[in-house]
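Q: Start with the shorter request: fold the first protein.
A: Done. Sequence, then structure:
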Amino acid sequence: MTATLTAPISYETLHLETSGPVTGRPVLLLHGWGSSAALMRPIAEALANTYRIYNIDMPGHGASPAPPQGMGVPEHAALVHDFLTNEIGQPVTLIGHSNGGRIGLHMASQPAYNHHFNRLVLISPSGITPKRGWKYHVRRTTATVLKAPFQILPRALREFGLDWLRHSLVWKLLGSSDYRQLQGTMRETFVQTVNFHVNEAVRAIEIPTLLFWGDQDTAISKYQMDYLDRLIPDAGLVTLKGAGHYGYLDAPDVFEAATRHFLEHA
């Protein structure tokens, strides 16, 4: 699945940090939702003596402006594609954390984008449908019931009513804490992003892939990581003992050693 950017946003508006030798093999860092390039700097600092590092703030994160309209994963992928095509022009290693990993999984599985990458290093990547508990199903059923009366209205009234519902206190309480903290186009971007899954698409990923997961991670489960390890043909999983969702920060020495070995020998 590819996308054409309809919002007036360009990769040139994104905050970019570069480091490392200009002639070094290129490495692209993509942070997770609610994070920023600043939290990916420890990776850049660890690898910049060898590799050319490109560390981006995605739209609405860090120092990059929010998009003028909601963006989903396909639109983020198109933005990254434009950056890689115009600024790097050769295959890169992608190091993606959480939602950055989701974007990487999507791009590496698509014929229109997979030529951009020669390796993936993914830390607790999202994008695999989690096993849902009863609370999720209660919230989903409640949301469906709340929307039902508006579905029978004429289109103009329906859109007005649904917009009112989405801004109501009840609707906000149904959302996650991340959703409740967001406003404007970033709220719509969040909804589009977290509901984008790559379960079957990852079978098409052909490049070597190194997966990291902290055994104290409460955002991404072992089930989701094992799924990726099983379905990506050339994948390996490293479990970081005592680490959480930001495993590369919690176990930096293990992360750096394993990543360097992977980049130099895969």
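Q: Next, the second protein, separately.
A: Sequence, then structure:
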Amino acid sequence: MPPAWFPLVLTIFCGSGAAALIYEVVWMQQLELVLGASTPSMGVLLGTFMSGMCLGSALAPRAARFIRRPLRAYACLEVITGVLAIGLLFAMPLVDHVYAAWGGSGASGLVVREAIAAICLLPPTFAMGAALPVAALAVAPDARGTAGLGWMYAANTVGAVVGSLAAGFYLLRVHDVVVATYVAAALNFIVAAFSIVCETFSPLR
């Protein structure tokens, strides 16, 4: 990637990080209303969220030999994340009915919570966790590429901070989970579009 394109790349990763943390705050709010805000419920939600991210980041490099265009694969993962997030928004009433019918207290209730959290959160968080390792496949394995990868992760972290603040102090405070989800999904789709542009029109392609 030419140096002149690098600010665009950093913006892409910043937007991806912002969307991820908006989703985390929104999903915690949504599932708290269904599963409850008790300590076991919060532990299940956080554990499932982080497990999905971990699985995605751990398994994505194993598929490296099958990925010929990393930025396009990254764009696909961003689109998948946005689509799944919107789908979860509309599926939440059904999730509420399922938990009301099958949930309970004790060990059986905890198992139901874990199952619901896994079904809701593992697919999108897996895609989110796989996105950065897949994009990293486009980085040259030299000192300059490694430094660029560090800046990309830093931009993603900055975006995550901005996203969590925006979700907690503006999107959910002034609007609601619907608006917050659409904002995060829009960021996913914009990031995907910019990734395709970088991959398609880069003079070093």
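Q: Describe the second briefly.
A: Residues 3-201 form a domain with the Growth Hormone; Chain: A; fold (CATH 1.20.1250.20). The mean pLDDT is 81.
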